[in-house]
Amino acid sequence: MTEKLVLDWQTFHKACKRLAQIIPLEKYDGLVAVTRGGLVPAAILSNDLDIRLIETIGVQSYQQQQQGDLQLVKPAYLLESELIEPQRWLFVEDLVDSGCTIKFLKQFYPRADFACVYAKPQGAELVKYSVEQVAQDIWIDFPWEI
Ligand SMILES: O=P(O)(O)OC[C@H]1O[C@H](OP(=O)(O)OP(=O)(O)O)[C@H](O)[C@@H]1O
Q: Cα(114) to centroid of ligand 1, in Å?
């Protein structure tokens, strides 16, 4: 990575609100926050889209700035649950970078739609909704990581 983009809370919040505006109201019943990066955007989208059904799925890949093997650290139990009717889920991420995380998740959920606040070119095509494009060689520091 050649450059660093350090985001403050206000900039990130505004971007999340713009993301909410391009997602059709009532198209989705539930959000799946891909942790950890999807947690804050999912909180903002859940308010703006008035969606109260929230699940998390935990995937880890980056250690410092190096991407290693992907690990499922927490499954999305609700998506398999017989306790609720099948729902229309929107997966939420802070960033699609190489696209490896989304490709990994699409093995399990091939038709899932993804909303990512920030998108880099390599992964952008995997995402249905995003609002901020950044160059591939920029490393982003999100406010909760600082
Ligand atoms: O498109 P990719 O190249 O796969 O990169 C994107 C992923 O990397 C970050 O997660 P990270 O692995 O750093 O875990 P974290 O969300 O717990 O910080 C980010 O939140 C995405 O999940």
A: 14
**Adjacent-strand bridge partners of 59:** 72
Write out pLDDT tens, residues 46-77: 999 999 999 999 998 877 667 778 999 999 99
Tell me the residue type at 66.
Q
Q: Say if 18 falls within a structural domain.
A: no
Distances (CA, A) of 25 to 6, 19, 47, 60, 66: 31, 12, 12, 30, 37
Q: What ipTM goes with this model?
A: 0.96
Q: Which domain holds residue 67?
A: 26-132
Kindly give the distance from the C-alpha atom of residue 84 to the centroid of ligand 1, in angstroms, as a whole number.
Answer: 29
